[in-house]
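anyone else get weird line breaks when pasting these?? whatever heres mine. first is seq + tokens for prot A
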Amino acid sequence: MSEPMSVLIADDMSKKAVEILKEAGFTVDVKTGMKPEELAAVVGNYHGLGIRSASKVTAATLANPGKLKIIGRAGVGVDNIDVAAATAKDILVINTPAGNATAAAELAVGLLFALARKIPQAAELMRKGVWEKKKFMGVELTGKTLGVVGLGNIGRQVAERGVGLKMNVVAYDPILPVLAAGAAVPTGVKVVSFDELVALSDFVSLHVPMTKDTNNLFNAATFAKMKKGACIVNASRGGIVSETDVLEALKSGQLGGVALDVFTKEPPDPSPLFEHENLIAVPHLGASTKEAQEKVAVELAEVFVGYLKNGVVKNAVNRK
């Protein structure tokens, strides 16, 4: 009789994942908070490794992969996994792109409202006992142009919600060239070039992965092409917006407001950026809903079962 499949859960995630794996006959160990060298020492004892954003799976982690066949990220980004190293060891890497899409989209829309009406700034003064109504004159989203960069699972939902808010929604996707032909575009959304989106948008919401092409995609040169006073929401990946350049654009008034859920370094170091009154910063809350955390855990467990028991490949980021 062959040994039962075993999975290591190395980061906090919903207990639903463990329940599904055990029901499928897997043995499951939950060991969170391990140091890199500790993870490297034990990872080869398992057929599957489930993580979120806390654990880093580097080439050193996979130096002696042993039985490891699959690494799963409960979330979208796989920045914390050396995908090339895993591929070289014939280890499948998967993510869970659908599970947290609604949560991330709703956060982005919430940040659009926060920018338009300066809600956090007003709330902060009220907390200090200051009634400052005239200072917080906002704008309506209705009738404004929303530029959505990236029409994947999350960006598409943001675009659809923008249409529902009676905004004029334009979109550009650097990853999916098929969109240039008008395929898979939500009703009411117009696909445009990057330069057109930058020039047309009153608000821009970013939903693309970090790649060599998207790194610092929004920098001083990009800001200069935008409408004066336009606003940006980045709830995708840190580094897509240049944090140095965005501060200067806020200081000059070229940007009217910026909302950041993600940062180049997390947690970020203290910076004058966080002191600017038109900057809204939150600590990577995109997937932080009870529903999303359960969905990504369930999705991860189901993919593990399908692959390790039946060889079914789903959500792979390193295999066609």
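and prot B, same format (seq, then tokens)
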Amino acid sequence: MANLTSDGLTRPELWPTCGYALLDRDGDGRLVVTDEFLRAYLARPELAPVAESCDAERALHAALLDDPRRDVTQAGLDALVDADARENYQVLLGFRDRLLAAGTVEACYHGLFKSGDVGLPVMFLDQMVHVIVRNILDDVTDPFRARAGELLFREQNATRQEGAVLLGDTETVEMLATTAGMGSLGKLVVDGGIKPKQIDLDVLQPGAADIYWARNESFDTVLDLTFTRPGLEALCRVLEAWVGHFLGAGVNVQPVQQITDERWLWHVGLDRVASQLLNELYEGADVAPERMERLLSLFRLEFDAPGLMRSDIAGRPVYLGLCMSETGKVRIKPQNLLVNLPLASKV
């Protein structure tokens, strides 16, 4: 059955160019790496041959298109004349080998952080999260939840406006600021010193949020993360689904306005800034008001089955925090929920 929007219309494909359609799914719903998925990386501008490419580079590209899993020796890489091409292929092949060794995208991603040996550019990590979140949200028809899913793999700009917490995609915001929303013509205007008109992005609102679907890959809508509003609730559901998909553990995540728990035992920052801030608050340190202003959201996470938790923590809530940086950037590190929860060793 097709996924329908609130208007009863068929929901457009979510993030169609993320590579999800090129992957298979195993019996556990994990994403199995395919030749088609690997070939897609060879079409990237960093790897596609150009006029200046040497014969060895062209031959390597053609060989990998024919068999994306083929072994490539160091001698084969050394034959490439262009140093950038050699480095790009080396990085890609390292990523490919990790994917193939793990078997699924999820196993590869989780394994990187469990081992502590990440060793991949952030771009590859974000792309893995992108396609995994797409997998998790396959049957989702709530546009707020789909937009909240973007937070796990795309940096956001946070703005406080009349008591609201608004998140807009950093890349989109910066592009519009550079071009005034008019492409190359707008860039000429801005570069010429002419102040462009203010450009406002659409904030997803109840009753009109289905605008998200037709532009879901434009990343040009704003998510309202204000307490009690649908955007924050949607992020809770995405975090629950993320933990459940990887760890097989049912959890309940709810937003809270403050932590008043006298038996506060465990917390996880959803980003680097939140990790540091929660650590200081847990230790009872005085935190300057301007730093507290960077705290956007707090959450209470509880396991459906406390037996999955460490025995000394079992039954107690885990508090989560989300912050913006000093420059207003929000960069969620979803791996924190996989490696920093107080899990029993058997999980």
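btw re prot B: Residues 58 and 159 are 47 Å apart (CA to CA). The chain is about 40% helix and 15% strand.
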